[in-house]
């Protein structure tokens, strides 16, 4: 009796699959994508930073309001040249306060003056107020001017009255607070200076200039 030979099945060969992560080409592609992503993120941050810088320079930089005297009219006028020169008048002035900021401007109470030869001959106070964003506020003032307020002998009043023209000027100083995006408050001050001629014969203001 012959012995039957027994055959045993061979163990299957192990097939080792190389993952994509070990593929050099894949690593290069992934690295390139990472670099591009970093560049895009960096460029976005720089762009947003520039936008914020421009925004802060243009919008968030507080500016002083523009204060101007728009008109002056003569309500009453009385003057004499002898024996003692004097002039009394009532002027009605309109002052505008223009706010160039991207936020409201709240100003304190102040006063406007009328000067002759650098000396005060009239003054009128006005109360506090508010000018809206990039808006304008008009203030109407009635001021009495009196030459009796001048220092004695320190002016050319007699000569100017005889010439028929009184050279006067106005001055006002306004201080207030600019409110930007409700978190930034800055105090700003503006001054108004204006020269004008009071024509006695016609009782009118001419040559109004800032």
From TrEMBL:
<dbReference type="GO" id="GO:0005886">
    <property type="term" value="C:plasma membrane"/>
</dbReference>
<dbReference type="InterPro" id="IPR004864">
    <property type="entry name" value="LEA_2"/>
</dbReference>
<keyword id="KW-0812">Transmembrane</keyword>
<protein>
    <recommendedName>
        <fullName>Late embryogenesis abundant protein LEA-2 subgroup domain-containing protein</fullName>
    </recommendedName>
</protein>
<feature type="transmembrane region" description="Helical">
    <location>
        <begin position="37"/>
        <end position="60"/>
    </location>
</feature>
<dbReference type="GO" id="GO:0098542">
    <property type="term" value="P:defense response to other organism"/>
</dbReference>
<feature type="domain" description="Late embryogenesis abundant protein LEA-2 subgroup">
    <location>
        <begin position="95"/>
        <end position="194"/>
    </location>
</feature>
<keyword id="KW-0472">Membrane</keyword>
<dbReference type="InterPro" id="IPR044839">
    <property type="entry name" value="NDR1-like"/>
</dbReference>
<keyword id="KW-1133">Transmembrane helix</keyword>
<dbReference type="Pfam" id="PF03168">
    <property type="entry name" value="LEA_2"/>
</dbReference>
């Amino acid at each position: 009796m012959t012995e039957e030979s027994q055959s045993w099945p061979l163990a299957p060969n192990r097939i080792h699959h190389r993952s994509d992560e070990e593929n050099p080409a894949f690593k290069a592609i992934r690295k390139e994508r990472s670099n591009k992503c970093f560049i895009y993120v960096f460029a976005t941050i720089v762009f947003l930073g520039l936008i914020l810088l421009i925004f802060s320079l243009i919008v968030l930089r507080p500016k002083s309001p523009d204060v101007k005297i728009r008109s002056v009219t003569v309500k009453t006028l009385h003057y004499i040249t002898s024996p003692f020169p004097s002039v009394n008048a009532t002027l009605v002035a309109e002052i505008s306060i223009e706010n160039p900021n991207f936020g409201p401007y709240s100003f304190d109470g102040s006063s406007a003056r009328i000067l002759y030869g650098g000396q005060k001959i009239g003054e009128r106070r006005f109360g506090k107020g508010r000018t809206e964003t990039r808006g304008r506020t008009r203030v109407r003032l009635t001021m009495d001017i009196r030459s009796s307020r001048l220092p004695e002998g320190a002016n050319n009043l007699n000569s100017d009255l005889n010439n028929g023209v009184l050279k006067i000027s106005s001055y006002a100083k306004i201080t207030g607070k600019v409110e930007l995006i409700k978190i930034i408050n800055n105090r700003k001050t503006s001054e108004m200076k204006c020269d004008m001629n009071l024509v006695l014969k016609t009782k009118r203001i001419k040559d109004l200039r800032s």
